[in-house]
Design brief:
The complex is a heterotrimer of chains A (346), B (339) and C (366). By secondary structure, chain A is an all-alpha fold. Chain A contains 13 helices and two strands. The longest helix of chain C has 30 residues. Classes of the chains: A mainly alpha (346), B alpha/beta (339), C mainly alpha (366). The interface between A and B is large, with 43 and 38 residues.
Chain lengths: 346, 339, 366
């Protein structure tokens, strides 16, 4: 777990040879997709496109969680960070919309969402590192505070003039199945996919990643070799906040185009589950986010098929599927060793 | 421990006494006969929900001969009764309660405060209570017209619906009517619809899910989508607005006014006219003639606004013909509650 | 407001001195939170004094108001106990909401379906049935963790959603009342938890549950096993404690408490199961447990505090025109200051006392 060998943990598994199961699973998924694509190309494509879309806020939230936790800071405030960023990104866009080109207003909206996420991250870091509050308390404070502030200051009837558009990546978008699913998306969705790989690389192949992981696993050892535990944690939690901020901006400025009270609706908590499911690795989390996104899109598809079953049955399917996969395949997860513990330097 | 609790009780009691003494007085005294006051208690959700709470509130504000209006937003369904009581104890003359879920609390309050008139929006009255008027709507008829319009506009032969939750009867009525109307026009139409998978607290407030789900329907060839589920439905409308050549249909009010993000697709809305209904009932109450039992409000399609030129005269004629038949009772929507 | 409530019970000194020592930080935290909340109110054009007076009037201003505060506090106590208890074993039960819903609907079923029983049997039966159902539901997450290693944070979040769908299905399907509204029939008179004057009997049950939980955690062998597991599961295993059993039982008891909260709501407040009437309580439980620093007895005043704010929020809207969402802001600030006692002590120039430090998150991933 701590070594740099964990690179392709798409579907994490441990007990039997992990890699074998993983490859078998990926092949099985591939065959299933091709089979269903032949049977019903439209439905298959739309379900998979829906999967990528529904996974976007979850993977961004999970990246936020894991960057913090890899350095030893638990973040259950992802939900609040997202919500606050969604609100501010939207309000900035609404305020700037009339006085500048739409594209610029959207861009600045997204940037301000990211900054708010970072600011909330800084607040969490301050509570966890400087004040040494229990980290679960810090996250809970952020969640309630964000819900209260955004709901209290919510203004009725505001709307943006537009949202971040979908753009196809030239000829790539014309590839059957893969084109519409992967190469005909909107900016933050592309960005989220790229960031998965960037964070995976940074975490396991760069000095920053090494420092992060050593602070999260053995803070005192890191301290002795001259890494500042506090600085690393501050920096990581602030960077992590940017990801939650991006997820928030995605909700208001790319996916929906308006802000509504409490519109994150638990996605921050599901992102937390996704992160643990993915064993604190970006690729693993992406796999978990895709699984959850797929289950949600599949639920919709089952309803579209007009099955005569109570909607609650299909409605609980994504959650049951997640539990089954988790219990059946994923197994025990081990968090960074020093997570949750404030560090006292000598 | 018990000693401390009793100490606590004593302190709390003292605080209560002090506070009870400093009760502020109101310049507009609703308990006076001269002052006609109307209060509104929202369902869980906000008064500016761009949907039924808001329509009802606009009805209260627009009612004539009213001296004072006030609302309370309910944060917890268990507070319905207490929130109604706040108005009742303050001497309000009419209390409007919004949403089917408040029916029981309204009936209880009506028995406790027989001198106050109650207007229950979406509250079907099984047995008439003297001082309660249930403002109800045949949502299925509005849905039927929306479905007929959708089927006539659709070129792909696939239409969709993104819905709140089947736990709320009006949503089911809209949906069933929509499907009935679509099939009436085109028996072979491909109808794809889905409900939000969450509970009552999120089913109407999840625009992100609404948008993603609408996209999934669009990807499968749906070219008209009915968004019926508060802000969840609005999310669907906003998504369709960004799609080329697709239409969307709003719900409850004329959403042209409430969901500007949907202007790119909003051809019409399946309306229940809560605002005029509430106004009419408040006027009746002021005249001392509140109709006990059920009061059936009007439903219908909103105007086509910018899409007026895209809706052919033939479609318009068919719709007005259907509307007459539904009103006359010669046409059934296929919605059968309780069945 | 109602500050003396937030006390904890650990050492034995003279009552007055001890009371001030344990209550001073919470009291001052509440004051600080109210001041900041007041600034926010004033900046956004509301009158903070009017708002707070109305908030107090709506929560403690009359016998009925106080009764409603206790009524609101009741499920919060149960929810807070559920979370606090699980924390003792190093488990983070985010699933209080789901366990509460299951408890609520099972209590409703027993309450309306079992005709002809006397009160003395029927009410306790429905109550216990709901609690046991919640316990079994909680134990699922415990068993999943013990046998497959599936993390309880994931499973309890997922089980919350499953519970919502399951209860919605039951209330709209097999257990549906006559008529078009999705809800169960009303529970029979013999299963209703009474209210004595303004004092809800359910509140007394909640207080008893808190005392029982405290006893279980601090005065029994099992409680010792739980706490040992919470501090270090490996050491516990080494010391001969069957950790997997402890995990399952802890989640079961935690669910039992949450489920009982749901049952009390159904039998004492709502009178039936209706979707949408029990939401949010589970998540409030996390706040309460943290506010109480996971002390089962501390949960009582914490729940009364939050319950009072919820009960008074309608009056605050009505009399002062302040949106009820401001109470979330104030709650967050209270939680912050209560936990960050360093700041409170700085602001009020108090002496540092080696107050107990809590760490809940050590059990995060084990």
């Amino acid at each position: 777990m701590t070594s740099t060998t964990v690179t392709t943990a798409e579907k994490p598994s441990s007990r039997i040879s992990g890699r074998t199961i993983l490859i078998a699973l990926l092949v099985a998924i591939g065959i299933a997709i091709v089979y269903y694509y032949i049977v019903d190309p439209t439905a298959t494509t739309s379900v998979l496109a829906g999967t990528i879309r529904q996974a976007t806020p979850l993977i961004l939230g999970a990246l936020c969680g894991l960057i913090g936790e890899r350095s030893g800071i638990i973040n259950i405030g992802i939900e609040g960070q997202m919500l606050m960023a969604a609100f501010v990104a939207f309000m900035v866009n609404v305020a700037l919309g009339p006085i500048m080109p739409l594209g610029l207003a959207l861009f600045l909206g997204v940037v301000s969402g990211i900054l708010v996420g970072a600011l909330m991250g800084g607040f969490l870091a301050w509570m966890s590192v400087t004040l040494k509050l229990d980290q679960i308390i810090g996250g809970t404070v952020i969640n309630i505070l964000a819900l209260g502030l955004t709901s209290y200051f919510y203004v009725i009837g505001l709307t943006t003039r537009g949202k971040l558009p979908t753009f196809a990546l030239g000829p790539l978008a014309d590839i059957p199945l893969i084109g519409p699913v992967l190469f005909n998306r909107s900016p933050i969705q592309y960005l989220a996919i790229i960031l998965v790989f960037v964070v995976q690389f940074a975490l396991f192949r760069t000095v920053w990643g090494l420092r992060t992981r050593s602070v999260g696993e053995h803070p005192s050892a890191a301290d002795t070799v001259g890494i500042s535990v506090k600085m690393t944690r501050y920096m990581n939690v602030i960077i992590a906040g940017c990801f939650a901020g991006l997820a928030g901006a995605y909700l208001t400025l790319e996916s929906v185009g308006t802000f509504e009270r409490g519109m994150t609706n638990g996605r921050g908590f599901i992102a937390l589950a996704v992160m643990i499911f993915g064993r604190w690795t970006p690729l693993g989390s992406w796999g978990a986010a895709l699984l959850f996104g797929f289950a949600t899109a599949l639920k919709t598809q089952l309803d579209f098929m007009g099955l005569n079953v109570p909607p609650q049955l299909t409605g609980s399917m994504p959650y049951i599927l997640t539990i089954v996969v988790l219990a059946g395949f994923a197994g025990r997860a081990r968090p960074p060793a020093a997570v949750g513990q404030p560090y006292e330097s000598e | 421990m018990f000693k401390r609790i009793s100490l606590l009780m004593v302190i709390l009691a003292l605080v209560s006494l002090v506070l009870a003494a400093c009760n502020s007085s109101d310049p507009e005294d609703c308990s006076s006969d001269e002052v006609f006051c109307v209060g509104l208690v929202t369902d869980v959700g906000e008064v500016d929900d761009k949907s039924f709470n808001q329509s009802a509130w606009e009805g209260v504000q627009g009612a004539e001969g009213v001296d004072k209006v006030e609302f309370i937003e309910t944060g917890d369904a268990k507070d319905y009764g207490a929130n109604i009581a706040l108005f009742a104890e303050d001497g309000y003359d009419v209390i409007v309660t919004v949403g089917f879920a408040m029916g029981e609390a309204t009936a209880e309050a009506a028995a406790t405060y027989p001198d106050i008139d109650f207007i229950g929006v979406d509250q079907f009255q099984g047995e008439a209570i003297d001082n309660v008027a249930g403002l109800i709507f045949n949502e299925d008829k509005a849905g039927f017209l929306a479905g007929a319009l959708a089927a006539m506009l659709s070129e792909t032969g696939t239409i969709g619906a993104v819905l709140g939750t089947d736990l709320v009867p009006p949503v089911v009525a809209f949906k069933e009517g929509y499907e009935g109307g679509a099939r009436y026009i085109n028996p072979d139409i491909n109808l794809i619809s889905t409900y939000h998978p969450g509970g009552m607290d999120v089913a109407f407030t999840d625009p992100e899910w609404g948008a993603s789900t609408a996209k999934q329907a669009l990807d499968q060839g749906a070219d008209v989508i009915f968004g019926a589920g508060g802000k969840t439905g609005n999310g669907a409308l906003g998504e369709v607005a960004g799609a080329e050549g697709a239409y969307c249909i709003g719900v409850d009010t004329d959403q042209w006014e409430t969901a500007p993000e949907a202007h790119g697709c909003l051809v019409s809305s399946a309306m229940k006219l809560i605002t005029p209904g509430v106004q009419a009932l408040i006027a009746a109450s002021k005249a001392g003639e509140l109709p006990a039992g059920n009061y059936i409000g009007d439903v219908g399609l909103a105007s086509f606004h910018d899409f007026d030129s895209e809706v052919s005269q033939e479609i318009k004629d068919t719709l007005s013909d259907l509307e007459q038949q539904l009103a006359a009772g010669t046409l059934e929507t296929g919605y059968n509650p309780g069945g | 407001m109602a500050a003396q409530e937030t006390e904890t019970m650990q050492e034995r000194e003279s009552v007055g001195k001890r009371l001030w020592r344990s209550a001073s930080v919470p009291v001052l935290s509440i004051i600080l939170a109210l001041v900041i909340g007041g600034v926010i109110l004033a900046l956004s054009g509301n009158n903070p004094i009017a708002a707070y007076v109305a908030l107090l009037r709506g929560s403690f201003g009359s016998a009925e108001a106080f009764g409603r505060t206790l009524e609101k506090a009741t499920p919060l106590i149960f929810g807070g106990l559920a979370v606090a208890f699980a924390f003792k074993a190093g488990l983070f039960n985010i699933g209080g909401q789901g366990q509460l819903l299951i408890g609520a609907i099972i209590a409703a079923y027993v309450g309306f379906a079992f005709d002809g029983l006397p009160f003395i049997i029927h009410m306790p039966l429905a109550l216990i049935a709901g609690a046991v159902a919640g316990g079994l539901y909680g134990a699922i997450a415990g068993a999943l963790k013990a046998y497959t290693g599936a993390h309880e944070v994931i499973t309890t979040i997922m089980l919350n959603y499953v519970a919502i769908n399951l209860t919605d299905y039951l209330a709209d399907g097999p257990w549906k009342d006559e008529g078009i509204i999705a809800r169960t029939p009303a529970v029979l008179e013999s299963a209703v938890i009474p209210t004595w004057g303004f004092l809800p009997f359910g509140f007394l049950l909640a207080v008893l549950a808190a005392i029982a939980t405290w006893y279980l955690v601090y005065r029994t062998t099992f409680g010792y096993a739980i706490r040992t597991t919470g501090i270090n599961p490996n050491a516990a295993q080494y010391a001969g404690i069957k950790v997997s059993q402890v995990i399952i039982l802890t989640m079961g008891i935690s669910g039992f408490l949450a489920g009982m909260g749901g049952a009390v709501e159904t039998l004492g407040v709502v009178g039936r199961y209706q979707p949408g009437f029990n939401l949010g309580l589970g998540f409030d439980g996390i706040t309460i447990a943290l506010l109480a620093k996971t002390n089962p007895l501390g949960v009582i005043p914490a729940a009364i505090l939050i319950g009072a704010m919820q009960a008074g929020s309608s009056q605050m809207q009505f009399s002062a025109g302040v949106p009820f969402q401001i109470i979330d802001v104030i709650q967050a600030l209270i939680l912050f200051f209560v936990s960050a006692d360093i700041i409170v002590r700085k602001v009020f120039r108090m002496r540092e006392t080696g107050g107990e430090k809590i760490t809940l998150s050590t059990g995060w991933g084990s």
